[in-house]
Amino acid sequence: MSDVETVRYLAMTRLLNLLALLSLLVCVAVGALWVWVGGESAVLARHDFGRRAARVEVAKGRLYFGSEVTDSARYVYPQVFAVWEFAGLAYSRSTLGTWFGVPIWLAALLPALACFASRRFARRRPEPGLCPTCGYDLRATPERCPECGTGAGRDAVDAGS
Predict the structure, then answer these.
(1) pTM to 2 decimals?
(2) CA distance 123 to 96
């Protein structure tokens, strides 16, 4: 493995480790949120942008992301344009705003899967010049490992010379 490949590999490993840590924190936060709310409704965040507001809310076992109307148009009789639910996901659009809902269990599962996947792909490769099976130093015998008998790959031969 060349120096450029080694640096690229180490950078990728560090990036995946950082992503694993972030996804684990998100997973723990969503789990704590699930326990904290306990089936009731709670507004987690709301930001006003003049005529509209962005809002994150937990209700009925879902995490809702929404954009709602805040000006005088809010006080008219609401008209619903689209509503659908599938596999726990929900979407609603009306004159009052647009909402997208994700089940809390899915919001906790996705970061956990990302954490698992990043740890799986960040496994260490054997160092150059070492046997890929047992890690024995192959500088003296670059063709075959004297410890386990495994034939050495091209990387081990290149590093041994």
Answers:
(1) 0.54
(2) 49
